[in-house]
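Support request from a user on the community tier.

User writes: "When I paste my structure tokens into the form, the page sometimes reloads and wipes my input. The last time it worked, I copied everything first. Here is what I submitted, just in case something in the input itself triggers the reload:"
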């Protein structure tokens, strides 16, 4: 079997100072060579590994025949956002991990081929089913909301998305940097959803400018896909000093408020000289790599476990290392020092003990190993939770002890005619898992109407 075709990338010394996309994408020759590696299994495990069930062997076969338009058409049967998924989904943990070639070598580069099809295929949207005479309100225009809205629109429902911010896309717009997911790709996918007849009302803060109870009077059903936009903090001394950001705020200033386009946009943001990012997930990698591009001399990832336990994608860790990010493993912050602005982060060394509930070895402090790290900017990237203010504004909505919305396997909440999915129900997760939740909810909404609307069925 021929080796997996590598993805061309900007050289590290060039890309660490610009916000242009790092991965340059396959050429047509690259895509044809990689598509030839697919065995076209009769029982494809890759499809089972895809949260939205994309017909992977079929779209790759179309690429093998040089039919990028056909490949995109096949993908769109299941996935409304292929240009996004081909860039940011963890295929290595999903479809590619189930590829038969991974047993003895490298799997087919399914994500890269999906990106190629999305970028080079031309698509004529599907014809909508006949109008159902029902209207649906979708709250949030992130991956869950966009997917739910697109699927429902194709089924013949009238759909309106309510988005709190001034641009659509949710976390795709405010949370993921331009060098990993260009805004032009997000806008293209949002425009596709609009082309299906979906209305998007921006600057509409459900729970504030409009109440869920009002939406229930105006619409036949509601899907809540507001994500998990409230940051978690360390709750250690000095965390309120200037120059300390949540990753949410930091990345929103860069992405949505366009700090990445300085000096065209003079966004208020601390362009630190020595930056520490606390956390080990993809958001931490995004923040650290963004800090470099804003001009930092030195950027540290501070993570309390070892590299083996890091939840970030291997690709993102490798990119960060290539760009010069410094990794401080088995290190935990215990306080910040400074007068007005942060000037140092107090830390302690850790060692790994027995596995905890997550299955990862629990970090334990090493007595007497405290030390101080000089910094002028800190970014806290240790996860998010759904906005409690929004959820508290919905009477009768049952939540879990983790603060997420309590839903069943279909996405139904404790309120009749209200579904929910994505990070609002799971906490911080992947784009594709949120899309899967939106798709399941859309299917159940349709089934519920077809079955006559018995909520307890």
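"...and here is what came back when it finally went through:"
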């Amino acid at each position: 079997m021929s080796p997996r075709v590598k993805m061309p990338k900007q050289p590290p010394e060039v890309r660490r100072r610009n916000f242009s996309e790092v991965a340059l994408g396959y050429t047509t020759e690259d895509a044809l060579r990689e598509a030839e590696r697919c065995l076209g299994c009769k029982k494809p495990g890759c499809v089972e590994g895809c949260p939205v069930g994309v017909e992977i062997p079929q779209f790759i076969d179309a690429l093998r025949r040089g039919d990028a338009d056909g490949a995109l058409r096949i993908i769109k049967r299941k996935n409304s956002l292929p240009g996004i998924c081909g860039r940011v989904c963890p295929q290595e943990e999903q479809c590619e991990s189930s590829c038969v070639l991974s047993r003895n070598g490298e799997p087919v580069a399914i994500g890269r081929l999906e990106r190629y099809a999305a970028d080079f295929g031309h698509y004529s949207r599907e014809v909508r089913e006949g109008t159902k005479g029902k209207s649906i309100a979708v709250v949030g225009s992130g991956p869950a909301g966009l997917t739910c809205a697109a699927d429902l629109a194709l089924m013949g429902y009238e759909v309106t998305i309510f988005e709190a911010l001034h641009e659509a896309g949710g976390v795709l717009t405010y949370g993921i940097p331009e060098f990993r997911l260009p805004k032009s790709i997000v806008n293209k996918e949002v425009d596709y959803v609009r082309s299906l007849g979906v209305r998007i009302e921006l600057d509409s803060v459900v729970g504030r400018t409009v109440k869920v109870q009002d939406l229930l009077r105006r619409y036949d059903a509601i899907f809540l896909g507001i994500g998990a936009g409230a940051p978690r903090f360390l709750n250690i001394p000095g965390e309120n000093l200037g120059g300390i950001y949540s990753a949410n705020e930091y990345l929103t200033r860069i992405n949505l408020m366009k700090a990445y386009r300085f000096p065209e946009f003079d966004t208020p943001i601390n362009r630190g000289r020595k930056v520490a990012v606390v956390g080990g997930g993809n958001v931490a990698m995004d923040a650290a790599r963004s800090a470099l591009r804003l001009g930092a001399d030195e950027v540290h990832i501070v993570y309390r476990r070892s590299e083996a336990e890091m939840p970030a994608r291997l690709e993102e860790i490798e990119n960060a290392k290539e760009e010069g990010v410094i990794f401080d493993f088995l290190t935990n912050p215990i306080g910040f020092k400074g007068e007005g602005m942060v000037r140092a982060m107090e830390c302690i060394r850790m060692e790994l003990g027995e596995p905890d509930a997550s299955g990862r070895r629990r970090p334990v402090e090493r007595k007497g190993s405290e030390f101080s790290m000089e910094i002028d900017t800190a970014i806290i990237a240790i996860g998010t939770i759904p906005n409690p203010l929004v959820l508290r504004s919905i009477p009768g909505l049952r939540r879990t002890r983790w603060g997420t919305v309590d839903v069943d396997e279909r996405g139904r909440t404790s309120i009749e005619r209200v579904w929910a999915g994505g990070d609002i129900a799971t906490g911080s997760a992947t784009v594709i898992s949120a899309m899967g939740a939106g798709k399941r909810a859309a299917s159940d909404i349709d089934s519920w109407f077809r079955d006559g609307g018995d909520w307890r069925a």
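Agent notes: The reload is a front-end session timeout and is unrelated to the input. The radius of gyration is 23 Å. Residues 3 and 106 are 7 Å apart (CA to CA). Escalated to web team.
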